[in-house]
Amino acid sequence: MSVHGTASSSPSNDPLLVSGTMIREAIRTTVRGVGVVLLTAVEVTALSVWLGLVADADPLSAPALVGVSGLSAGMLVEMLLAHVTVNGWSRPVPARAVAGLAVAETALWVGWFGAVRWTDGLLGVVVAGLAFAVVLIPRHTATDNAIQGRRPLASLVQRPTVGLAVLEAAGATAWLLVVSRAVTLPAWVGTIPVAGFSPHAVVGAALLTGAVFARHLLAVRHALRRPSRTSKSDWRSSRGTLRE
């Protein structure tokens, strides 16, 4: 008489395990999507308030200083959100790198706007935008390095960060050209109700928001392609990570 053994079910075929994995992955995807939206909202708000304060102000006036301070705070929050969106709450935040990169990005935006004000005409704005894209490349590379647990200056150029820099500079250039009324909008845009804002402000903000959202989405996807390594930090949290 032959004895037939009962085949044990593979853990990978366990419906409960598969269902739990799918739920966890759906939660991770949703949280990361919310993170990208928050990143976009913070950056666009900080940039819009900053430009509104400094557009017609003297560089050393109180409105300009308040605008730059607000922009720095927004960039700091953006850097923290970017780290949490990729790594979750349990990974240590590289505090000095985050603060340094926030200050660096603020300086780049201020320098770009200063170059735009110094130049004259459409060609000058475009040239300033190209220069802005070039200096943004090492900044985005350093950010990617810091988020993935490497030294920020471990590398200065990566192919993906070149695209991110070009996208951000293009969005900034289009935004400024529209809100400064350097370009003319189609007549039908003026018929859209915008609740107290000028059509140029709304269209410019929409262009900036689209560019910023796409950049953050691509940056997060790029950062998630490789495993993150932990680094020393002063700020820690006991909560779980999104990457595990």
Question: What tags apply to this protein structure?
Answer:
single chain; 244 residues; mainly alpha; 6 helices; globular; disordered C terminus
Q: Determine the structural class based on helices, strands and strand pairing.
A: mainly alpha
Average pLDDT across residues?
A: 83
What is the alpha-carbon Rg in Å?
22 Å
Helix content range? 55-70%
Which percent band covers the strand fraction?
under 5%
Along the chain, the helix and strand elements come as HHHHHH
Low-confidence stretches: 1-9, 228-244
Question: Care to count the β-strands?
Answer: 0
Query: What does the largest sheet look like?
Result: none
Number of helices: 6
Compute the separation of the termini in Å: 49 Å
Please explain how this structure is put together.
The structure is a single chain. It is built from six helices and no strands. The chain is mainly α. Helices cover 67% and strands 0% of the residues. It starts with 14 loop residues before the first helix and ends in a 21-residue tail after the last helix. The protein has helices at 15-54, 62-87, 95-118, 121-147, 159-179, 199-223. The protein is globular and about 65 Å long. Keywords: Membrane, Transmembrane, Transmembrane helix. The chain crosses the membrane at residues 34-54, 60-81, 93-115, 121-141, 162-189, 201-220.
